[in-house]
Structures are given as C-alpha cells and as structure tokens.
Design goal:
With 368 residues, the protein is an alpha/beta fold. The chain is built from eleven helices and 14 strands. The strands form three sheets. It has a ten-stranded mixed sheet with strand order 3-4-5-6-9-10-11-12-13-14. A two-stranded parallel ribbon has the order 1-2. A two-stranded antiparallel sheet has the order 7-8. Helix 6 links the parallel strand 9 and strand 10. Helix 5 crosses helix 6 and helix 10 packs parallel to helix 11. The two termini are 31 Å apart. Bound molecules: iron/sulfur cluster (SF4).
C-alpha cells in the first residue's frame, strides 16, 4: 500500500480498501470504520474531533495519523449560453475543471448536468482534444472527484436554485484510466446516505478501455456507459485517437455486447463529426454495420475548434445527412450541441494551466 507509513497522510487520498486496512490495523472495528468513511466522504466533517460517534482516544489516533482536507472552489465562470465552468484548486496547486450545463425549455429548467474531470491532463492525446495536448499529469483522487460534485452541487443550488439531474464523467481525462478512484467514488455515491443522484443518472465516458469496461460492468452495473467511437473504421479511428492502435474496435464491440447483456442498458455511442475525416456517407454505413447487434443510442457531437488542432467542423447539411442515414437504419440518434465554447468548457476544450498560475476568472462562490 502506498504511503501507508506516512504520518498525516490525507485520509481521502488513499483507496477505500487501503483505508479499511489501515483502520483495522489500529483496532477500529467494522462499525468504527464505517463511521469514519461516512464522516469524511458523506458528512464531510471539518475535523476528526467532530466525529461524535468515536471515542476521544479514537479521534486523537486519527488526528495523529491522518490529515483531512477538502478542495475549495478557485473560480467560477459563466458562459453566455448559461453553462458554468468551475475550477477547484487542489492541494498540489493543480486545478480540476468541472462544467455545469443547465438546459431550459419554455423558460423551465428541464435538465441540469454536471460534468467532472477524472485526471489532470490526459494520456491519450486524441487529435481533437485540448486536454490531450497537455499530456498526463496525475489521476484525481476519490476525494477530488467527490469534491467536484459537491462544490458543483452548491453552485447549482446557489445559482439556479435547483439540484443536478445528471452526472457525467466527461471532463478532463479518461475516467476508466483512473479506475480505482472512480470505482471508490461510485461506491460512495451509491451509499443510501449520500445525498446525490441515483446511479442510473451517472454516466461514465470512455475511449473504449475494454478491460475496464468489463470491470465497470462487474462492479457498477447500475451506472450508464458512453463510448467515444468517432469512427468505426480502425485506420481512421487511429488517426483521430492514437490510442486506438491498442484498442481494437473488435474488442470494444465484445465489451459493449457484454455490457448490454449484463446490465440491460443501451450504451451511448459518441461520434464527434470532423470535416472530411469521419463525416462521409461511407463512414455512416461503416458505423451502422459496427453497431449491428449492439443495443445503442448514438450521440453525434459537433466539433469545437481549438487552436492546437487542424480539425474543423462539418456544416449542418453534412450533419443532417449523416444523422438521416443512421436514423433510416433504425438507430436512435441525438445531436449534442456543445455548451460553454466562449469559456473553453465545450467538448474537448478543457485545458487549464496545470499548476499554480492562478486567477483567471472571478470567484463567486467560495466553498466552505
Ligand atoms: S478526448 Fe478524452 S481520452 Fe481523448 S485526449 Fe481528450 S480527455 Fe483524453
């Protein structure tokens, strides 16, 4: 176990399994361990000595061994389209980006989604994605994942006077590449005492890490899965997403079929349209063949142009033609119009300075 002997290690930086083991070593019984876990992840006590159910001696031992801190909001920026970009400052001065997307219909809020980041930077370097240009810096911890949700929840309450309806792991990074922290965060979110969303309102987005899709299917079958395919032609997909060279479409397909069988849920197929690369009639036909036998729903995404990429966005006529071909084949298709382009929080645009180069936006809601 990493850093097991460190004094004052951040209690929310270690995995739930490691925390359980460490607490067992210092003679906390199962009830005590559950109390600690609930206190730091669900009740968010400010200090160990405020955990009422523990004895003074236990509180003192916890304070001797661990530290406890929550990550505050650093800034909040509002887009002209009503979405928000929230930045959390982390203990090493890295920053985690969270996006809040309210959707209105006839003046009424019909949906309010939070999209959280899972890593600082990303390992996979997709050609259309600003985050990918950063390279990989580190995984976010379970505490940092949950803090994004918690602080975004406060923003939704303060700014919109409502609660989130959906949570997407679609911000910076590849969530399944940070499986341990993701899985622990989902376990906490599924706890009946966690005042959050039902697991069916949580979606994990991935480039198609098929082994981790299998793990997610086994460990958290309640949550929804979205896979970025972007082309069902292996060669073109490799051009768009270099990681595809190691993630054969065939293996992804098998994992998706297994997910369908085990969960009964459709999988969302994300398809980012790039002009002249994957937006042709042939590419639509290839996608149709690939999805035969998979229970899926397709989300077509219009590309957000970024400086560091030569890709460009197809026109509306091409989008509609591509969509119509899929619909005529009996597929269910949605189009996702990106939010927050003016604050660089649209799909694939998240690219904050990684380390301490602060103050980009005005902070409106400091976290407690
Ligand atoms: S699209 Fe996702 S997986 Fe690809 S580089 Fe961006 S963050 Fe990473």
């Amino acid at each position: 176990m990493k850093n097991m002997n460190d004094r004052h290690m951040d209690i929310r930086k270690i995995s739930l399994a490691d925390l359980d083991e460490r607490l067992t070593e210092i003679d906390f019984n199962e009830d005590d361990r559950n109390i600690v876990r609930k206190a730091v992840y669900i009740d968010r006590v400010p200090a160990f000595n405020e955990i009422q159910e523990l004895t003074p001696a236990q509180k003192s031992i916890l304070s001797d061994i661990f530290s406890l801190q929550y990550n505050p909001a650093d800034s909040l920026l509002k887009s002209g389209d009503g979405s928000y970009r929230l930045t959390l400052e982390l203990s090493d001065s890295a920053r985690a980006e969270t996006v809040i997307i309210p959707e209105w219909e006839n003046g009424l809020l019909k949906k309010c989604a939070i999209s959280i980041s899972s890593q600082i930077g990303c390992f996979f370097g997709c050609s259309f994605c600003a985050t990918g240009q950063l390279g990989f810096h580190r995984n976010l911890t379970t505490g940092e994942l949950l803090d994004q949700f918690h602080v975004a929840n406060e923003v939704v309450s303060n700014e919109l006077n409502t609660v989130p309806t959906h949570l997407y792991f679609m911000g910076m990074g590849e969530p399944l590449h940070n499986y341990r922290a993701l899985s622990d965060a989902l376990s906490i979110m599924k706890d009946p005492d966690f005042e959050g969303l039902p697991p069916s309102a949580i979606t994990i987005s991935t480039v198609g890490l098929y082994r981790q899709i299998q793990m997610l299917t086994r460990d958290h079958p309640e949550v929804r899965l979205a896979v970025s395919i972007h082309s069902a032609d292996q060669k073109i997909r490799e051009r768009i997403m270099p990681v595809s060279a190691r993630l054969g479409l065939k293996h992804i397909r098998e994992a998706l079929r297994a997910y369908n069988r085990a969960t009964g849920h459709p999988v969302t197929i994300q398809y980012l349209l790039l002009r002249g690369i994957n937006d042709s009639t042939e590419q639509a036909e290839t996608l149709i063949s690939y999805l035969r036998g998979i229970h899926s729903e397709i989300t077509l995404i219009m590309y957000n142009e970024i400086e560091s990429s030569n890709n460009s966005r197809p026109n509306l006529e091409v989008l509609n033609q591509f969509k119509d071909i899929l619909i005529q084949a009996g597929l269910k298709v949605d189009v996702r119009w990106c939010y927050g382009e003016d604050i660089q929080s649209g799909c694939g645009q998240l690219q904050p300075p990684v380390f301490n180069d602060r103050v980009h936006f005005s902070m409106r809601h400091p976290s407690p």
